[in-house]
Amino acid sequence: WTNPTLQPLPTDLPSPPPPILDPPSTSHAKPYNPSLASSTTTTSYSSFTDTHDTSPSPTPLA
């Protein structure tokens, strides 16, 4: 009962996983990669410039 039921389940499972993993991988990787990279790069640069600008400004003034 459980044996025959589990047998057809795994056979059908491996079939749908490939197509399901493909769309989310490409769709998620495309918008996620550029979005995260652009957001991270801009934020990192802005933070770095802001921190550096604020650090040297008060240091020499003091």
From TrEMBL:
Biased-composition ranges, Pro residues, are: 11-22
Low complexity bias: start-end ranges = 1-10, 35-49
- The annotated region (Disordered) lies at 1-62
Q: What is this protein called?
A: Uncharacterized protein
Can you name the source organism? Trifolium medium
Native organism taxonomy: Eukaryota, Viridiplantae, Streptophyta, Embryophyta, Tracheophyta
